[in-house]
Amino acid sequence: MNIGVIGTGNMGTILIEAFLDSGAVQADQLVITNRTLAKAFAIQRAHPGITVAADAAEVVQRCGIVMLCVKPFDIHPLLQQLAPHWTREHCLVSITSPISVEQLEAAVPCQVVRAIPSIANRALSGSILVTFGSRCSAACRQTIDALFRRIASPVSIDEAITRVASDIASCGPAFFSYLLRRFIEAAAAKTAISTEQATMLATDMIIGLGELLRRDLYTLQTLQEKVCVKGGITGEGIAVLERRLDGVFEEVLAKTHEKFREDVEKVRQQFSS
Questions:
Q1: pLDDT on residue 24
Q2: Distance between the two ends of the chain, CA-based, in angstroms?
Q3: Looking at the domain assignment, is residue 151 inside a domain?
Q4: Which end of the chain is less congested by CB atoms within 10 angstroms, N or C?
Q5: Where do the Pyrroline-5-carboxylate reductase dimerisation domain residues begin and end (predicted)?
Q6: 7 labeled part of a ligand binding site
Q7: How far apart are CA 150 and CA 25, in angstroms?
Q8: Would the annotation count 11 as a binding residue?
Q9: Element (H, E) at 156
Q10: CATH of the domain at 145
Q11: Residue 263: inside a domain
């Protein structure tokens, strides 16, 4: 079965490259397109077996599974444009969080899945948040699960936790990359270490931390307890973090949820018009 990708921006490209690297999909099974076709052709040059379609309609016509990797407010106009081409046999996969599977199902006659990826999927790691529509057959569910399992850990989520799950799994890499970068910048500014050496050490540290957790050698709590010896240096640093970070992540979540509600309302107006 051919797999189509409409939109080859950051996340569309990440999914394409992850599918190919993992062997989940062969290049000649992929049909891709983008509003700016030059971006799609650039991917094709790196992976010559890929087909670049002239437009989104051609992707739908040629593929059984179609992934919409476009911005939230572009989804509804695109679905209207593609209305004549969907069949009940198609599986539409949307990667945008503000649009529910119920809204998608109301707009198309086919099977619908929402799958929210993470940049970690590019390393064939991390989670991908999956919500199946009510029309998805058992075969469709199995196919989509098997496809995503090659590049990530598929996690089924309810609509109620869409935003917070996305904050952790999808936005989390950006949040914690920012914190790590600030840690490196402070180290270089306040001590004799170079930014390059601090970056190397911090990178090795975060990879090692992930490996400890992946191998289930420690939980987050027990890991902190092992490193933070009573009366020691680490404990002094933790005390600063406890004072300064009080309420920070609560505010982060409040802001992301506020923006999410705004987007959901704009999308609702589009789909109800």
A1: 97
A2: 34
A3: yes
A4: C
A5: 161-262
A6: yes
A7: 10
A8: yes
A9: strand 153-156
A10: 3.40.50.720
A11: no
6 is in an annotated binding site: yes
Q: Are residues 128 and 205 in the same domain?
A: no
Please tell me the distance from the alpha carbon of residue 177 to that of residue 172, in angstroms, as a whole number. Answer: 8
Which residue do the tokens 């992850």 mark? 18
Cβ contacts of 2 within 8 Å, gap of 6 or more: 29, 30, 31, 62, 63, 64, 65
Neighbour-count burial of 15, counting CB atoms closer than 10 A to its CB (0-12 exposed, 13-18 middle, 19+ buried): buried
Residues in the chain: 273
Q: Identify the CA nearest to 1 among candidates 49, 94, 63, 58.
A: 63
Q: What is the C-alpha to C-alpha distance for residues 169 and 191, in angstroms, rounded to an integer?
A: 33
Same domain? 8 vs 136? yes
The last residue of a domain, from among 157, 178, 194: 157
Query: What range defines the domain where residue 124 resides?
Result: 3-157
Per-residue pLDDT of 202-222, as tens digits, reads: 999 999 999 999 999 999 999
Same structural domain for residues 55 and 146? yes
Averaged confidence pLDDT in the chain: 96
Domain-located, residue 261: no
Q: What is the pLDDT of residues 21-55, one digit of tens each?
A: 999 999 999 999 999 999 999 999 999 999 999 99
Domain count, the chain: 2
Residue 8 in marked binding region = yes
Q: Indicate the pTM of the whole model.
A: 0.93
The answer to whether the annotation marks 193 as part of a ligand binding site is no
User: 29 has which bridge partners?
Assistant: none
Q: How far apart are CA 136 and CA 249, in angstroms?
A: 36
Torsion, CA 38, CA 121, CA 88, CA 35, rounded to 10: -20
Six token digits for residue 236: 């002094």
Residue 228 included in any domain: yes
Pair (145, 13) in one structural domain: yes
